[in-house]
Design a protein that fits this description.
By secondary structure, the chain is α+β, with helices and mostly antiparallel strands. About 20% of the residues lie in helices and about 30% in strands. Strands 1, 2, 3, 4, 7, 8, 9, 10, 11 and 12 form a ten-stranded antiparallel beta sheet that branches. A two-stranded antiparallel ribbon has the order 5-6.
Length: about 350
């Protein structure tokens, strides 16, 4: 394939620099030259939301960059279409409390020649943090599936724990219903798994286009949370693996609103959580659920992987891959003034 011409590359560089400046400096004024009004408004709204953020000083980036990669492209004399992968890297905090926040955004961009130069004409974000409900209806909701599991990631059995130097957990069959009481939740193992797979899907599992809840469930399981296998999609919390040519999983494993509902229900054992009122009450390994429109439908989930020096959560997520991202998600296109959160402290023992 021939290389993209320099004029188009220049236009892309100018766009990436504008996005970086607006995001890093909370400066919507940097976006004035973006020709797509809809996308410019989207970016300006994000920048203003970050400017109004009520967050500790350590959450403000001190410096940062965007590492852009052209995934694929096509071009004629009249237009160019580019899929762009942008890795946003932000240095935050100070001294011993410094940390790096990262997220990966993908966009489909159309450029056109105008007045002898190429300009961005349209930009469409790829990866939707607004809707995990698209997974519903993928299979027959009422189907009960027989137990014929292929083994997904199992704590202490995959080589992951040894590679990371983390403690190896005892492993027991996750498909056998209720686990023995008193099994500990290994938060360090859940966080280590989250940091390992934040920007790539674990091939032991199916990776969905909307992958946030599947990823969070994997992290919880890596920390020792026992599956509750029922064979019914609408009941329990389980992932069966490939069986009969299809990946089998419960709604609570892979659908944001369903996991939120599962965590909200009291139970004496298995995966369970306590809903708390403040993000400051969370710890690494806990879960945050996001209702973007304030209508009671939770469309996104994250797992807490670190804390700021002031004790506020930093989270990892998929769909838009994120690592040590500030918990409130004002830097997301999905965020609105109506956004509501639910905070779940995962039980220390199951």
């Amino acid at each position: 394939m021939p290389e993209l011409n320099e004029a188009i590359k220049t236009a892309l560089v100018e766009y990436v620099e504008a996005v970086n400046e607006a995001d890093l400096r909370r400066s919507p004024e940097a976006l004035g030259r973006i020709g797509d009004e809809t996308h410019r408004y989207r970016l300006e709204r994000r920048s203003r939301a970050l400017r109004r953020r009520d967050a500790p000083a350590s959450a403000a980036p001190r410096r940062g960059e965007i590492r852009a990669h052209i995934v694929r492209w096509s071009a004629t004399d009249k237009e160019a279409n580019v899929e762009l992968r942008m890795r946003l890297v932000r240095a935050c905090g100070f001294g011993a409390h410094a940390y790096t926040e990262e997220r990966i955004e993908r966009e489909r961009i159309r450029l056109v020649p105008f007045g002898g130069v190429w300009r961005l004409d349209r930009a469409e974000p790829l990866g939707d943090e607004r809707s995990s409900a698209s997974l519903l209806g993928a299979f027959d909701e009422a189907a009960a599936w027989p137990v014929a599991p292929s083994l997904p990631y199992a704590p202490g059995r995959s080589g992951f724990a040894a590679t990371q130097g983390a403690a190896t957990l005892p492993w027991s069959n996750p498909y056998g219903g209720t686990a023995a009481r008193g099994a500990p939740y290994n938060r360090a193992e859940a966080v280590a798994y989250a940091d390992l797979w934040w920007d790539a899907g674990n091939p032991s599992y199916e990776t969905f286009e909307v992958n946030c809840t599947n990823y969070v469930s994997q992290c919880l399981f890596a920390g020792g949370a026992p599956m509750n296998y029922t064979g019914k999609r609408e009941a329990g919390w389980w992932y069966q693996g490939l069986s009969g040519g299809q990946e089998r999983w419960s709604y609570s494993w892979a659908v944001a609103n369903s996991l939120q509902h599962y965590l909200s229900q009291p139970r004496g054992s298995e995966l369970r959580a306590e809903r708390v009122e403040s993000p400051a009450q969370l710890a690494p390994g806990d879960v945050i659920c996001y209702d973007w429109d304030g209508n009671g439908q939770f469309r996104h989930n994250t797992i807490v992987t670190a804390m700021t020096p002031e004790g506020m959560p930093l989270v990892n997520a998929n769909t838009v891959p994120s690592r040590h991202r500030y918990w409130d998600y004002r830097d997301s296109y999905a965020w609105t003034e109506n956004t509501r959160y639910r905070f779940y402290h995962i039980a220390d023992f199951f």
